[in-house]
Design goal:
By secondary structure, the protein is of the alpha+beta class. It has eleven helices and twelve strands. Strands 6-5-7-8 form a four-stranded antiparallel beta sheet. The longest helix has 31 residues.
Length: 372
């Protein structure tokens, strides 16, 4: 029981700031645009505690901590926004629905953007204080019989690009190769001043994921020099923070694309239970690991919300893109249908992810073993 309480504690420590940052992005842009914000909630369901500020916004923490929301005047929870037929001129002036298309787009996009900027800030602070893990992107040894040897890699080769992405550190090579188990990867290396294009097919290795499950990863079969930590000045740390965030965005988008393309199992998809377990594991590994995990989770939160699914921020942005192209908003029936489909999809995705989490639990696996 004590372990469960500690896990939940670290889950809330990691997730709550990320939710707050996301919703504050929406809130800040809405207030700059003159929209009245009625509710700022971290969590869903019944209010646990909160207060109302001078602008009339109710700031609160709610019972279910898996997300949050900002409720703006004139904005519907599910379906088209209020068209303002019964509003006064003063109410239309502070209504979300009656703002310019560019303002509404900025307000909706601000949440995911805030998560991305938050990740950059985390990496900047970390790299300027503790330092950035760094290994030169150079091959010090090729494992005999490995995918690297088959591809023609040699000791002394310096990685320039892997899978179309520029490389600065050996850690970046490892991260990209792990995403391509059994999948051919284009590699550009520098060998004695000459650039060579190679193609490698990383071998498939199954490893424990630390949560009672297994993960398939790609292994190239090269070793780098000894790993070190390099502390940067603030400007350099900020630039490296941007690079690291862009790299993780690329890795996440690639993984999502592989799931939709069938190259990666959807069983790897995790929900709140898995996030809680990973938060606890990261906390056990140290504060630096926990902070990096929070940054990675912030990036994932931002990207998931940008998916063009009605009900998510990306769905609203898709509606606004339609309006920008065709000079009119989608019909009310289309918005209502889209929101309902989006609700079913999001709930189904949450249930599927939670089911994946539950079947990974050791106690569930032991019960299954009793009947198989």
């Amino acid at each position: 029981m004590g372990g469960i309480v500690v896990t939940i504690f670290w889950f809330l420590v990691v997730l709550t700031p990320l939710v707050f940052v996301h919703e504050f992005g929406h809130y800040w842009f809405a207030r700059r645009a003159g929209v009245r914000v009625e509710v700022f909630s971290v969590g869903f369901g019944r209010e646990l505690f909160g207060y109302t500020d001078k602008a009339g916004t109710r700031w609160k923490f709610s019972l279910v901590p898996f997300g949050g929301y900002v409720k703006m005047f004139g904005q519907s929870d599910l379906g088209p926004d209020d068209d303002g037929a019964d509003m006064t001129d003063a109410e239309r002036a502070v209504s979300f629905h009656h703002k310019k298309l560019s303002q509404k787009t900025a307000i909706v996009a601000a949440g995911p953007l805030a998560n991305i900027l938050f990740a950059i800030s985390i990496f900047t602070i970390l790299f300027a204080t503790a330092g950035q893990p760094f290994t030169p992107a150079q091959v010090s040894e090729v494992v005999p019989g490995s995918a690297a040897e088959v591809a023609g890699l040699k000791s002394g080769d310096e990685f320039l690009e892997v899978a179309g992405r520029s490389i600065a550190r050996f850690e970046e090579v490892q991260q990209l190769i792990r995403l391509h188990p059994g999948i051919p990867v284009d590699i550009l290396v520098d060998r004695d001043g000459n650039q060579l294009d190679l193609v490698a097919t990383p071998s498939v290795t199954v490893i424990p994921d630390g949560l009672g499950d297994e993960a398939r990863i790609g292994v190239l079969g090269v070793r780098g020099l000894e790993r070190a930590f390099e502390r940067h000045s603030v400007p350099v740390a900020a630039w490296q923070g941007v690079r690291e965030t862009v790299r993780l965005v690329s890795v996440t988008v690639t993984a999502i694309g592989q799931m939709f393309g069938g190259e990666r199992s959807a069983q790897e998809l995790g929900g709140p239970v898995r996030i809680a377990q990973m938060s606890g594991s990261a906390a056990d590994a140290g504060i630096a690991t926990l902070v990096v995990f929070a940054a990675f989770l912030s990036i994932n939160l931002g990207l998931i919300n940008l998916l063009p699914i009605p009900l998510l921020d990306g769905g609203h942005l898709a509606f606004y893109a339609y309006e920008a192209v065709f000079r009119r908003a989608p019909g009310r029936w289309a918005q209502e249908l889209g929101m309902k489909i989006g609700l079913v999809f999001v709930l189904g995705l949450m249930l599927f992810a939670t089911f994946n989490d539950i079947v990974r639990l050791p106690v569930v696996q032991r019960i299954v073993e009793l009947f198989t």
